[in-house]
Structures are given as structure tokens and as C-alpha cells.
Design goal:
ABC_transporter-like_ATP-bd, binds magnesium ion, P-loop_NTPase, globular, ATP-binding cassette domain-containing protein, nucleotide-binding, alpha/beta, binds adenosine-5'-triphosphate, Rossmann fold, 2 domains
């Protein structure tokens, strides 16, 4: 995945007090196959904005993004349907990804086991704990086994055990040649990343 010269400004307020808030000022970012890259920056530095542009959920004012292969995206705020269970979410997303039913079931079982939330399979999303909701959010991004995986603060709500499982899962994807971009406002284990990029003053600066 390659992004270059990404610019984005939000518009704030109403006329005549309208102001532009520049967030990205020409950010460049590349994530290659078999690489785990960390995107780090303080609150409000524009990490989520850049991620939304990378996955095509938000239009940039300038710059280009190119992705080879399918991408999967785990948003910072889970987008789930309150009244659907975990199983029903996987079914729904499996359809949206056009996966054969048995492939979806297999992937779902694997993700329940990998992240350890099988026992919530039939629990409605509005009754899940924050950490389990984060697992569902991550599981949905992983369901179709995308070549490029973009995760926005994926482990913020995880307990230690899940945090370790998360990194096992990332390591496996990297070994299979996947590209992973992990956004965080802090990086605890720098050695788990191949590269770290700081988002500062609207630019992505290699560390
Ligand atoms: N839809 C929007 N409209 C206007 N301003 C926005 C919008 N979304 C984000 N912003 C502003 O853009 C800036 C960057 O926000 P963004 O969510 O990208 O930061 P972030 O680095 O992901 O922060 P955090 O670490 O808190 O998740 C912030 O100043 C934020 O208030
Ligand atoms: Mg964010």
C-alpha cells in the first residue's frame, strides 16, 4: 500500500466564522508485503483521518493512495449493529465480502479461537463488554483474510492475554506475506514493529 502527498483539512463552524483546520499536509506512507508498520502520534494528530483516507472511507484534498490486493480495516470506534449477535455479524460481513458460506464459517471459528471469544457467539453486540466488542471489530476486519490490514488502536481495550494473542495473530499474517499498519497513540513494544512512523504536524516522519 502506498500513499503519497496526502492533504486534508476539515471545515469548522458556519459562515461567516468558517475556518479550515489543516490536519494532513502532504503525508507519505508505504507499507510493503510482509511488513508491520506502526503509525504513532499524539491525540488529534490525524492518525484516524489518514487511516480513513487510506481505506477510501474519506476523500483527501490532495494526494494518491494505491493498494495492491484487498484491504481490511478495523475502525477506532467499532461500527456494529447493536441488535445483532457476533455470529450474525460474521454472517453479514461474510455476505458483504462475497465469501462462500463454509469459508466464512471456517474463518469465524478460527477467529473465535484465536481471539478467545467463542462463548459470546450468540450474544448481542449491545451486551458485549468493551474488550469483547473490540475483538469482534478486529475479527470482522480479518474475516476475509485481507492482504493489507489497517488497524486503528486495535489493542486499546485488550487485557494482557488478548494483547499477546493479538501479536501472535499479527506475526502469523506477516509471515504469510501480509502487510499490517497499526495505529496507536503509544507504542509499548517497539521491537514488534518492522518500522515506526510518527505523524507530526501533518507529516509522516520515519523514526
Ligand atoms: N469530521 C471531522 N470534522 C472536523 N474535524 C475533525 C473531524 N474528524 C477529526 N477532526 C479533527 O481532526 C484532527 C485529527 O483527528 P483524528 O481523529 O484524525 O486524530 P487521531 O490522531 O486519530 O487522534 P486520537 O489519538 O485521539 O484517536 C482533530 O483535531 C480532530 O478534532
Ligand atoms: Mg484516532
Amino acid at each position: 500500500m502506498e500513499a503519497s502527498g496526502i492533504e486534508k483539512a476539515y471545515r469548522r463552524g458556519i459562515w461567516p466564522l468558517r475556518r479550515r483546520l489543516p490536519v494532513l499536509r502532504g503525508a507519505d506512507l508505504t507499507v510493503r508485503a510482509g511488513e508491520v508498520v506502526g503509525l504513532v502520534g499524539e491525540n488529534g494528530s490525524g492518525k484516524s483521518t489518514l487511516m480513513k483516507i487510506l481505506v477510501g472511507a474519506l476523500a483527501a484534498d490532495a494526494g494518491t493512495v494505491s493498494v495492491a490486493g484487498r484491504s481490511g480495516y478495523c475502525p477506532q470506534v467499532p461500527v456494529v449493529y447493536e441488535r445483532l449477535t457476533c455470529d450474525e455479524h460474521f454472517e453479514l460481513f461474510g455476505r458483504a465480502y462475497r465469501m462462500p458460506v463454509d469459508a466464512e464459517r471456517r474463518a469465524r471459528r478460527g477467529l473465535y479461537a484465536e481471539l478467545g471469544f467463542e462463548r459470546y457467539a450468540t450474544t448481542r453486540a449491545d451486551q458485549l463488554s468493551g474488550g469483547t466488542l473490540a475483538k469482534l471489530n478486529l475479527g470482522l476486519a480479518l474475516l476475509a483474510d485481507p492482504e493489507v490490514l489497517l488497524l486503528d488502536e486495535p489493542y486499546a481495550g485488550f487485557d494482557w492475554d488478548t494483547y499477546v494473542k493479538f501479536w501472535d495473530l499479527v506475526a502469523r499474517r506477516r509471515a504469510d506475506g501480509g502487510a499490517v499498519l497499526i495505529i496507536s497513540h503509544f507504542v509499548a513494544d517497539e521491537e514488534r514493529f518492522d518500522r515506526i512512523v510518527d505523524l507530526r504536524d501533518g507529516l509522516a516522519v520515519p523514526r
